Amino acid sequence: MSSVHAVAHSDATSLKADYKVAKTPLLDRFKTASNVDTLMRSLARITDDALRGAWTACDLPASLALLAVGGYGRGELAPHSDIDILVLLPDEPMPHLNARIERFIGLAWDLGLELGSSVRTVSQCIEEAANDVTVQTSLLEARRIVGSTTLFESFSLRYRDALDPRAFFQAKVLEMRQRHAKFQDTPYALEPNIKESPGGLRDLQLILWITQAAGFGSSWRELDARGLITDREARELRRNEGFLKTLRARLHVLAGRRQDILVFDVQTPLAESFGFKATSTRRASEQLMRRYYWAAKAVTQLSTILIQNIEAQLFPSTSGITRVLSDRFVEKQGMLEIASDDVFEREPNAILEAFLLYEETPGVKGLSARTLRALYNARDKMNHHWRRDPENRRLFMEILKQPQGITHAMRLMNQTSVLGRYLLNFRRIVGQMQHDLYHVYTVDQHILMVLRNMRRFAVAEHAHEYPFCSQLIANFERPYVLYVAALFHDIAKGRGGDHSTLGMADARRFCRDHDMSPDDTALVVWLVQHHLTMSQVAQKQDTSDPEVIKRFADLVGTERHLTGLYLLTVADIRGTSPKVWNTWKGKLLEDLYRATLAVLGGARPDAHSELKQRQEEALALLRLETVPENAHRALWDKLDVGYFLRHDAADIAWQTRVLHRHVETGTPIVRARPSPIGEALQVLVYVKDRPDLFAGICAYFDRNSLSVLDARVSTTKHGYALDNFLVQHTERDVHYRDIANLVEQELAERLRAEGTLLPEPSKGRLSRLSRTFPVTPRVDLRADERGQYYILSVSANDRPGLLYSIARVLAEHRVGVHAARINTLGERVEDVFLLDGHGLSDNRRQIQVETELLRAIAV
Q1: Pairing mode, if any, of strands 669-674 and 366-367?
Q2: Residue 755 class from Cβ within 10 Å (0-12 exposed, 13-18 middle, 19+ buried)?
Q3: Which fold has domain 320-422?
Q4: Which 3 state secondary structure label does DSSP give 284?
Q5: What is the tens place of the pLDDT at every residue in 67-100?
Q6: pTM of the model
Q7: Going by CATH, does the domain composed of 3-163 fall within 3.30.460.10?
């Protein structure tokens, strides 16, 4: 080993030991009682010491300077943050410098410091900052650690001279909007990023960057002194910033690495580190997350006030009054502003009037900082008397009745806490998490998302998204009734008990207090009670059975109830998670709606008339495709009534066209086509039936990353399986037309192969979310009302290979699958199978099948 490397190795060992000795007790003290600001400043200080030691060990020239930039430049470090440094060079070139700088950076890494490093001259820094606002931001808080003071001062002077505060403000606000859009503009994700999500630490840092660039101050106290915020707002900002910093630091310590996302796995231990304890109704993690959401909400609200105030000072010529709207309100550059600071204190009715005016006034896109601040200060006025004031009740209903702006108004009311203060039970579910593997939003955000979906049905510009829903709501008298139902459908979650039943009482009280008619009240209460029913019937029951349709029609009673429930159901499913809704579910719901509407209109739920109608429609389609007259009979004579009731006319026509020449074939026939109803592949299988057939087909789909959305299984009178599958590839960007031929060839070849179709099932890995919140596997096997079939219901965490594991157990017991309804709800599955009853009447056999199924679906 050369003497140079030996010295470097010795220095690295010594410096690393010193750094560890200094850092370990800091983290140990923080786990018990240390203040987060003390920790972060201390971590920055010992990091400075370590870097100075490495700088000295590498004998770098005195004409260079080492700068801390980014968050490290502020003199703060979270336990496992990146350490951003800049090696600042004089503009004159220096020989043999690169090797020495590389040795310094390598030595710093050897110390265990996760560096983000750059090496630039002063001129290069100024040039890079002019081209990249991220570089400009990181240099804003540059701090000298070691090296030339003269060089650092030269850099600081040139940087300040080049900095344009107005351009910097505009760039950072645009950057913030883009960042917020990545998080769907909400702080209420179930796994938020403490640093980057709306309402996170980055929003607070951004404000201080802007004010520092503008010379307004670099702390909340300085902004208070300048009049940009009030003393109370400064205290709120400091308190919430302290909480978010503490949360992030504890998360780093708990994870043992840089970790800024509050993933489900760490929420419980993190909550316990704060002293939260689980209760009979709420997990410790839910209590912590509720505290986080309230902090993020406050940061969002106060940040909006601050940014508007900063903008008014940076651009004073464009901050004047645009127009006078009333004695109480004016418009300032597209923002609604109060005419006097005490208007809400003097006239509390003006609080709700502000949101109504926001909806009614074209060009107004938000509330001004002055208005937001006045709302914040008028919280005490939003009390019991304010809620019971008849004028306020009228105003609230007017807000719901407006032709536009309802969604934005309600979101703004929630952000400003006005909605929760008007509807106290809504306040209880603000920040309430939902650990059901189905919803990806907190309860309040889900409710507002459902309201937003309902409103989109009524907006002409969005009619192309769900034209049938838009058509129905256009003819729905008093659609605000549906908005009330949307507001209350989940409002009782988290109280214990059935939230649908508990929510009925809240909805009834609201309707009574707001003078809604008895009929509208009854509809709202009924919708809240039954908001899950239509989804359950469509996805879990055999809607080809006329008795199922009749029972549902009896429950619904009227077309208005049916239409309201259908619209609420579609809006609700779409408001749970982007993964849950698909076109197939939409078709199931629409088919149920149309079938029920026919019964409500006087049509008898008669299987024979339904059969005849579908056959006639299918024949009409076959004629268009030039299929010979009566060619269908060879196949149709072999099919039972159930086949025609389970398939629509288009599918019957397609399958008949494919199979009418091959009814007695000895060769398996597989045909695939892009689904007519959405992004999926429709697969037809026709082959001599055998006990392991369904399981074998599921095994093929599983091995090829094709998830089964629906399976309609029929057995002909002469022993052939005629199975129709709707499958979706796990990768979103697959072109189904491209893979159709491959599926046809491979699956047909597999079916032709002799021997068993059943490989050993391999249990796929559960998702991280499912591992954190496992679903208790449930299996329910019972005879249907007629005793002809058995209905198998399965509930479990979703994972690759699950359907095949179920099908394999049924195949081993020679239980035939007559139909399958595959229902994936986020990370949970609720599958229903209609099984041939032969052999299942024996209780001992039933128990054996259920036991093996439970074993197969268990994690």
Answers
A1: unpaired
A2: exposed
A3: Hydrophobic Seed Protein (1.10.110)
A4: helix
A5: 999 999 999 999 999 999 999 999 877 777 888 9
A6: 0.78
A7: yes
